[in-house]
Task: inverse folding
């Protein structure tokens, strides 16, 4: 072979090597991108569902509440279909205009499972989840699978966010083109949420309508109007003062609060107990975060109590209860450094509620607040 022929052969050889290396890099990149999804579909009960949330400023820990929605088509609804869901911190779930369940996350929590096959419609269907977090950040993982385990829909980047309540969101009258995109955390297991494990099938909320979804199954309070505040924080009961409700007996279930709709996020603290709670001496049992424009807030976890105190909202018109058993929740022992218990820290919701009260006339400057 002459010297004049060798350079083109070398050039062709290097071109082939470059092409092979490029193809290998491309294949590895595609595999790295598709492998998590393939692994999730093959090994996880939630199939290809991802953890999603809204894109938040991580330096801002303000409480938040909003809706995420997804439209999907089912040509022929299966006889069986299970919806697996969990959310950090809280969710209220609606399918085709019917509120069917609610839940709250705690470390080690299993997936809530609902049998929703009879609720699916031929053609278009809509899933809507109300999400709430007292610290702003959080996550939602949801997957709808048929009786054979095939995925019908799951949380991914096709879900849309609506920051306020609008008429028609539940039933599908309002198109989702106006919603904002979600932020995808990725496939489980990740972070403190770990590997999702499905729990037993939970009963659906029964007899629930679209707007007043607790009316048919509600247990009215023994007194139709709020009793006087447990601890008057200001004369004249200004907006935000504590309001005590008494059922007259111990009740168990999901609490619902009727509130006047507002253009801003409604923020309050909930105290419950078998005795009238004292907000200055009791730890709040939960946060009330009302989506802007919404006239009703529903608790995400069932409780057992006789008395309820709401602190921070304009006194609501009425409270009602959806009867339900209270499942046991595992208690985690939080130990500080060297076994020393750290002082309790206020949540962002507590800071906001007490901050508003301190600015009220007759309350500002009180050291106990």
Result:
């Amino acid at each position: 072979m002459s010297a004049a022929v060798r350079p083109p052969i070398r050039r062709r050889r290097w071109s082939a090597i470059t092409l092979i290396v490029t193809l290998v890099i491309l294949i590895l990149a595609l595999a790295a991108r598709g492998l998590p999804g393939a692994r999730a579909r093959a090994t996880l009960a939630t199939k290809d569902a991802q953890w999603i949330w809204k894109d938040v400023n991580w330096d801002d820990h303000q409480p938040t509440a909003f809706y995420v929605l997804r439209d999907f088509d089912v040509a022929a609804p299966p006889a069986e279909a299970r919806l697996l869901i969990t959310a950090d911190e809280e969710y209220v779930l609606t399918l085709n205009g019917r509120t069917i369940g609610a839940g709250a996350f705690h470390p080690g929590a299993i997936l809530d499972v609902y049998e929703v096959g009879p609720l699916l419609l031929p053609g278009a269907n809509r899933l809507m989840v109300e999400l709430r977090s007292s610290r702003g950040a959080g996550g939602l993982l949801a997957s709808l699978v048929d009786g054979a385990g095939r995925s019908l829909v799951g949380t991914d980047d096709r879900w849309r966010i609506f920051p306020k309540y609008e008429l028609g969101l539940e039933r599908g009258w309002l198109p989702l083109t106006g919603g904002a995109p979600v932020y995808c955390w990725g496939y489980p297991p990740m972070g403190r949420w770990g590997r999702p494990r499905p729990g037993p099938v939970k009963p659906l909320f029964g007899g629930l309508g679209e707007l007043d979804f607790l009316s048919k199954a509600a247990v009215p309070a023994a007194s139709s109007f709020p009793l006087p505040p447990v601890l008057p924080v200001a004369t004249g009961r200004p907006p935000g003062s504590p309001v005590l409700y008494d059922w007259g007996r111990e009740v168990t279930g999901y609490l619902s609060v009727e509130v006047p709709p507002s253009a801003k996020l409604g923020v309050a603290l909930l105290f419950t107990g078998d005795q009238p709670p004292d907000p200055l001496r009791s730890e709040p049992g939960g946060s009330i975060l009302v989506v802007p424009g919404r006239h009703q807030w529903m608790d995400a976890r069932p409780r057992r109590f006789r008395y309820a105190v709401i602190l921070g909202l304009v006194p609501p018109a009425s409270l009602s209860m959806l009867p339900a058993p209270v499942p046991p929740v595992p208690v985690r022992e939080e130990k500080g450094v060297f076994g020393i218990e750290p002082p309790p820290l206020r949540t962002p919701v507590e800071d906001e509620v007490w901050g508003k009260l301190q600015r009220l006339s007759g309350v500002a400057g009180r050291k106990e607040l």
Confidence is low (pLDDT under 50) at residues 207-236, 361-369. The CA atoms of residues 8 and 191 lie 54 Å apart. Residues 6-43 form the longest helix (38 residues).
